[in-house]
Batch of 2 targets.
Target 1
Amino acid sequence: MGQDLLSGVLALSLVLLNPASASSAPSTSQTTQTEEMRDYAVKDGDTLSTIAEKEYGSSDFWTNIWNDNDWIEQPNLIEKDWKLKIRNTKPLAEATLSATLENKVKQKKQIAKIQTSTVIDTSTYTGGPLNEAQITFLGNCESGMTAERNSGNGYFGAFQFSIGTWNSMGTGYERADFAPLDVQKDAVQRLLARSSIYNQFPGCARKMQSQGIL
């Protein structure tokens, strides 16, 4: 019996000295899971902000979506059926824009500044209210004529009003994207009665002029 007890002690010692010989369950800690993404097909009226609200629970996450789809040139102009990459897991925090996208934003601001400071030949447009074709082109150029567009970059509505400009129009609506399209059209007409379309909508005004619409 003493020999049996001694043999048992020796066997236990061997196991403790060589734990690899003992069977063990696979460790899940050795497996790292990479965050998976899926395709999202853009629908009519979608913006990065509305997609972020729908997918991540807050429009503030629009920067995360732009970072993950940095091929998009203008975050306020995305088109139906575009395929965007969306994370399966909600991000922990709103992202700051990547260096690449920050440079895009800076370049566009510089171009806009140059356009508004450049003397433009307006001989084909004498000012005043826009006709239906002109205001429709302008709305489509700015937002795809989406009245409720919130671009997530400080511009709202079909004609992408800034908060300051919109509030100066006295419409009774807090933001342009909260107002009916007819109210937004009227605000555009009144705005252009006191200011040049080339100052208010420089990029689209140039397109309108080049196509003979102004």
Target 2
Amino acid sequence: MVRERLAEVIQREADLVVCGEADDRAHALAAVETSRPDLAIIDLTLKNSHGLELIKDLRIRAPHLAILVVSMHDESLHAERVIYAGARGYITKQEATRNILHAIRTVLQGNVFLSDKMALRLAAKIARQPGSQQRASIDTLTDRELGVFEMIGQGCGTRQIARALRLHMRTVETYRARIKEKLHLKDADELRQFAIRWQQSGSLH
């Protein structure tokens, strides 16, 4: 529904056209190869993978493609990751219908689109001296660990996560163990409860 709504908004503009749509990584890669768009609008939540994986794939296969992420996930946690992965902008779905056209044109012009708050946060982080102690928080999770953590928060078990991310169950268990260690959680139940609370609130640091 969100994708259809965004497509309608974009199609009303005389200088913009939607040349393809997809709901998973494989079809997105195929659509980019066929349609060769100037811009890809990507959600972080895809059918069989995480949006960060798609961004990294596109950076390799279509290095000149501009990428804008439109997602429900908390900007303070994800915006930095998507920029480092190769996207040029991040906008939440709550803001998308109002600001999506401005975000699209900003990114197509070769600029980065972020909220004022997030831009200031990133600027402050870059300005800080290196060597500061890293917080034991969700920010320390790798992209893959974050994807597993999000699925735990959605109520998925190890088997479901393995099937969705195309991983072995033993690999998922390894990721779960690393997440518990990084977040200082003592057992699987504490991990699940923390992940659910974080998923509901958007972000816990």
